[in-house]
Design brief:
170 residues; mainly alpha; Rhomboid-like fold; 2 domains; 9 helices; elongated
Length: 170
Amino acid sequence: MANCISCGRELPSCSVGEVNNICPECRAAALARAQAQGPVVTRRSLLLERMPVTSAIIGVNVLVFVAMSLSGVSAVEPQTPDLVKWGANTGVQTLFAQPWRMLTSNYVHIGIVHIALNMWCLWNLGALAERIFDRWTYILIYTFCGLTGSLASVGLHPMRFGAGASGAIF
């Protein structure tokens, strides 16, 4: 005769085709615990409550992209002068005259596909980061990595422009 997988008690015999590996007492206790916990809530607001920093960073990125699009910048193929106007890295100019571009370039994206992929990666990796780090540590690490990624981009390709959150995310 089979035993309960939860408590080890001997189970009553089963009819043909019925799988029963938990005794009636353990089954009743499990149902009572499930009812006491209430329904599982998977609302979007609950996800935002669990990932406030990631949600805020995604919000800022999307807000900048929407503002760029509303100002007349193409959402599919933005032109280099438009990206530079919104804060993209511009090589030597960034290093010597406008170092603030190393930060702003992390929030400027080169089209809808670029921002969609970056925000998808940020959503997934940000969920992990928010479980590991406290809020301020996460913000500081994200910002530091973004600045470092921008500096590396400008250092490796000083004659090209650069934009996007990839350095900060990865």
